[in-house]
Amino acid sequence: MEFAARLAQLRKQKGLSQQAxxxxxxxxxxxxxxxxxxxxxxxxxxxxxxxxxxxxxxxFLIFEEDERGPGVDFRLQFDVINHLDEDEQRVIRELIDGMxxxxxxxxxxxxxxxxxxxxxxxxxxxxxxxx
Length: 131
Known about the structure:
Elements: H1 3-13, H2 18-25, H3 29-37, H4 44-54, H5 58-62, H6 72-81, H7 86-110, H8 118-123
Helix pairs in contact: 2-3
């Protein structure tokens, strides 16, 4: 569900009028109408106030249900991990952190270095010998 539809749905579920939501967020009612029509997007400050008003996260407002987070297989595994003792969870967390670091290192080493900037060329110039 897109932001516009989710906003309208939440507002209606909470029994708020567009004017009441506008007052809570601190914007003009015309802005709420634009948000719900999908013709305008809220600022970060307005998004934060909308999330606070509805008691949801900004991620919930912005992202589709399965757009973020682990896939189904990982969700099932994470559910099992939640039932392990604290030490076992710590070991799994360390393993995951290590794999992420390995992935990032591999990704960065495969990328060509950026071209030198003017400042790099200036700093790396050898002084000319004095005669």
